[in-house]
Amino acid sequence: MQRNELVVRFGIQQYLHWTVVGLLIPVIILIFQSRGLNLTEVGIVMAVWIGSTTILEIPVGGLADTIGRKKTYSYSLVLTLLGCLNLLYANSLSSILISAMFLGASRAVYSGTLDAWFYDAFDRIPGDNSYHTAMAKVNVFVTVGLATGCLFGGVLPNSIVSSYFESFDAYDISIFVTSVSSIILLFLTRLLLPDEQKRIKESHKSTIIIAVKTSVQALNFSLNHWTLRLVIQATIVFGATMSAVENLWQPYLSELMGMQSKDLTLFGIISALYFLVSALSSIVSVPLLKVFGGSHKALMFVTRALAGLSLILLANTSNTMNFALLYLAFFFLLTMGNNSEQVLLNENTPEEMRSTILSISSFAVTGGGVLASLALGFISEYYGISLSWILCGSVLLISSLYFLGCREVVKTESV
Questions:
Q1: CB distance 101 to 141 below 8 Å
Q2: Helix/strand/coil (H, E, C) string of 128-172?
Q3: How far apart are CA 332 and CA 285, in angstroms?
Q4: Looking at beta carbons, which pairs linking 33-42 to residues 24 or more positions away fall under 8 Å?
Q5: What would the pLDDT profile of 55-82 be if each residue is shown by its tens digit?
Q6: Which letter does DSSP use for residue 260 in this model?
Q7: CATH number of 1-194: 1.20.1250.20, 2.50.20.10, 3.40.50.1220, 3.90.1720.10?
Q8: Are 353 and 221 a contacting pair, CB within 8 Å?
Q9: Closest CA to 363 of 244, 225, 223, 246
Q10: What are the angstrom distances between the C-alpha of 245 and each of 72, 116, 275, 314?
Q11: Which residues, at least 6 apart from 299, have a Cβ–Cβ distance to it below 8 Å?
């Protein structure tokens, strides 16, 4: 198999995966509210959802490195299926919390599995294309998949399909389609992605012990590795900043607009453009890397610093047009270095603990998001959203300096 074929196969799988993920995004809060939950209870459910992901990120990464990445990924689809089936019949806070735990655990099980699998598979195949270029292409599939899923997820409750299920509530069709899609994706993944190298079979007890040892070793390795430590610290700031903007942009824009007309068209337009900007950012990162002489850390430093400055400007906008332009510019710059960050992580990580360290990175993102949600929610409530964004922009600007201290692995392949 050639590298280009591997990229296409993995890209198609990622498109399908994120399409399935996107099906519930537009209606998940509405589903909770339709089951009688108030906003406080919705907050509890989301905290359990995110908390389940955060707690399981690192130990599950050790499991993937022990029993295999594709096998572990299949478990994430099973957990998604269980969470959706339970949610289909859940009608109380306690039963919905069970679904939240299943779905949060599914996210943790997925994290770092196929990304690690792809890096190893790509690295074993000789060729001129770089991993950075490959990930730029794959991320376009990811973004389009999310957009597709969100589109279908929003349309399904009012579609003619839902009329054939008389026993379903308005939003149950989205849950049902997600369940069926997870089963289909389980089989399609086996067809699309080549089998990974066989791993030594162990007893269940030995597997758990090895997984725990791998997790501990990966933690020690990442904390003592100069470049990984810097990247993960910057990732915490990335997660906090992303969470602060994603959680607060709607109320900030609502205040700018006044919302007397309750016209949400602009919100939909900005959300749609966000997906387009993310895809464009991934594509542009390839020629931009050449401008920086192939230096991933230089690209990361410049784009993250500019993202910090754009967020500070966004915090001081006073009209909707400037807000929309700066909001999209912020995400364009913030996500520009995501492919380079993956390169820095993978090139400095041993193969035997790759999934675990990618899970540690994901843990840093969610951990930063949780901290931001708690701290910046309080600051925004009493001192304003602008102050929260100015603080995040300033910290993001400072954290961009971390990348200047990173050590890059020099490779002879072209970028």
A1: no
A2: CCCHHHHHHHHHHHHHHHHHHHHHHHHHHHHCHHHHHCCCCCCCH
A3: 10
A4: 34/169, 34/170, 34/171, 35/90, 35/91, 35/92, 35/96, 36/91, 36/92, 37/93, 37/96, 41/93
A5: 887 777 777 777 788 888 999 999 999 9
A6: S
A7: 1.20.1250.20
A8: yes
A9: 223
A10: 32, 28, 15, 10
A11: 285, 288, 289, 292, 336, 337, 340
Q: Which residue has the tokens 């380079």?
A: 340
CA distance 310 to 313: 5
* Count of helix runs (H) and strand runs (E) in the chain: 16, 0
The DSSP string of 320-332 is HHHHHHHHHHHHH
Q: Give the residue range(s) of CATH 1.20.1250.20 domains in the chain.
A: 1-194, 205-406
Helices 296-314 and 226-257, packing angle to 10 deg:
30
C-alpha span between 342 and 361 (Å, rounded): 10
Nearest to 408 by CA among 274, 299, 247, 287: 299
Give the single-character DSSP code of 193. S
List, for residues 234-284, the tens digit of each pLDDT value. 999 998 898 888 777 877 887 888 754 445 567 657 776 887 888 899 889
292: which DSSP letter? Answer: T
pTM assigned to the model: 0.72
Distances, alpha carbon 133 to alpha carbons 240, 314, 329, 387, 414, in Å: 27, 30, 22, 37, 10
**205-406 in CATH: which number?**
1.20.1250.20
Residues whose CB is less than 8 angstroms from the CB of residue 413 and which lie 6 or more positions away in sequence, other chains included: 127, 128, 129, 130
CA–CA gap between residue 196 and residue 65 (Å, rounded): 12
Q: Let me know: does 65 contact 115? Beta carbons within 8 Å.
A: no
Residues of the chain with pLDDT under 50: 200-203, 260-262, 411-415
Q: Is the separation of the CB atoms in 214 and 66 below 8 Å? A: yes
